[in-house]
Amino acid sequence: MNIYSENNNVVIEKITDFDIEEVLECGQCFHFTKIGEKHYEILAFGKYLRIKQKEDTIILFDTTLDDFNQIWRTYFDIDKDYTTIKSKILKCDIRLKDAINAKPGVRILKQDFFETLISFIISQNKQIPHIKQIVHTISERFGNEILLPDGRKVYSFPTVNQLYEISEEQLRECKVGFRAPYIRCATEMVSAGEINENELLNMSVNNAREKLMTIKGVGEKVANCVLLFGLGFTDTFPVDVWMKRIMEYMYFNEPQEKKIIEQFAMEKYGDLAGYAQQYLFFYGRENGLGK
User: Fold this and answer.
1) What are phi and psi of 177, to 5 degrees?
2) Where in the sequence numbering do the catalytic residues fall?
3) Closest CA to 176 of 249, 123, 215
4) In this predicted structure, what is the pLDDT of residue 204?
5) Torsions phi, psi of 43, nearest 5?
6) Could you give the CA distance from residue 198 to residue 224 in angstroms, rounded to a whole number?
């Protein structure tokens, strides 16, 4: 892999196990827009990024090497050896071969904790396009404006302090529905320090999950998504309706409780469970496994 700056862009050559479309479209994040073939606009950590991939070359436009190293290198998990991760998963269960081969470029993003928490509270009983629209609306109404070189305006996701000033009624105007008090509760607890990212990172995964579930409206599925996508706990296995169907189809051949499925996955995949979940989720959803 070769990384360098050219014409105010950062170029990554000869990258392996990375496909920007698979990374963004696999259901782990919502604040992006597709503008062409493997060509996207992303908003994360208060920054705007336009990124395009052609084969094994990625261009991050209008980006400095400092921003790349401080934000995007970690965000995209650039330095992680996914070849080894996939090999280890297949040693756990060769039945994931089709899923991994179909989506070999999936990586787990290292996202902003607060945005991830609020986004997955929004995600409850919502389809991905609707989640993205709500995240966009909340950002446009309450986040910071970013003026692009072409004159367009985009908006970052609001900070804790910005969202703290927003009422439940204002949130409902963004079509969050019954989730409005959950978003308020999460924001208030983070603002007060009752939910603290650094403290969560220093907890065991089980204790961190229990702590997140003290937030009104946050159950195991949302907590596990936040642990995996917002805190980097890969020893967790979020189970939503799709994952329940996929796992029942692959392993059980009959309905099972989500908790049983989660325990089974943790025993099978261990600290690789989060990676296995992403390959299975994306592949299973696209191919209608168990539907």
Assistant:
1) 60, -135
2) 221
3) 123
4) 96
5) -120, 125
6) 17
